């Protein structure tokens, strides 16, 4: 089952690079976070560690429900149901995503990172999520998509912690979830401001502010 869950996470990250509408990317992100919650839930079932159950519930509520709701609200208010704007082409981004995925698995195998008994299958995918999230931020021009890339990176780091040590201490995880929620709210506010100023979410237009 772990391999299937890991595969779903990988597919969701690659799919984020192939979507046409920003609203679709939020739905994919919600699905990715839901699968991430399943991962924490599966590890809790196997280990009976209580903080994993808390992490699973928080991931489900915050990342799979609240954060997508905030992003969908932002999209609705500023009416950006348009196609995403990439630096690379659709097929080039797919090729780069495949290369980064292979690199993630290769790096994991070469570094011999420590992993837990039940978390080992998730480790290569977690590193790959970090790589793909970074590429999403670099490849997309709109602020909301860069925010989605940032959340994908955080999902990867969350999975790294799950794979290596069955997660972080509960207070640390609570702080991270709170920070992520605040970050998404700030992204929404900045998106409003950018759109109201430039009538676009393309961050390249911010170069007009240079003196």
Automatic annotation (TrEMBL):
The keyword Iron-sulfur is annotated on this UniProt entry: no
Entry keyword annotation includes Zinc-finger: no
Protein topology in the membrane: Multi-pass membrane protein
Signal peptide: none
A cellular component annotation (GO) from this entry: plasma membrane
Membrane-spanning segments: 25-45, 51-71, 91-108, 120-138, 150-168, 174-192
Main location: membrane
InterPro entries (alphabetical): HyfE-like
UniProt keyword list: Cell membrane, Membrane, Transmembrane, Transmembrane helix
Subcellular localization(s) per the UniProt record: Cell membrane
Protein name stated in the entry: Hydrogenase
Species of the source: Anoxybacillus flavithermus
